[in-house]
Amino acid sequence: MIEVKNIKPNSTADKLGLEADDRILAVNDKEIKDYIDYNNAVADFQFKLKVKKQNGNIIEYEVERKYEEFIPWWEENWQLGVPSWHQGKVDYDTWRGASYGVDRLRGMVNFMKSEDWSQRMPEMKEYIELIDRTRDLKFAEVFPEMKDIFR
What we know:
Blueprint: E1 2-3, H1 12-16, E2 23-27, E3 30-31, H2 35-41, E4 46-52, E5 58-64, H3 67-76, H4 92-97, H5 102-113, H6 121-135, H7 139-142
Antiparallel strand pairs: 1-2, 2-3, 2-4, 4-5
């Protein structure tokens, strides 16, 4: 269990109604012992959060976040998402529908949420091994942060 210390305005915690001194008991039904447990558990796009409120009530929240939090910022700062070859040539509406615009991001997020892709991990491992052999590469060296993904 960890105690909530403060809440950042417009954060997921703020939108859920969490308050300082609430206690996070579990994420996806796994007990949270410390902040390391918590950070690892909430790395998922969707998760279930079990919280003990200050009044003693225990509430479970279904949380879907990350990309949805990023989209409003990206829309406000849309010019930062325009590639150099289009800078000064597109307006906001054109950017939204462009292959690099926010509509594309929303489409990718919907695709990711459409099913559990973990069942395809063996196929991905096979594909990466084929690419490694074909191109004389080593995935684990190119992406060291992901080297343990297929163990």
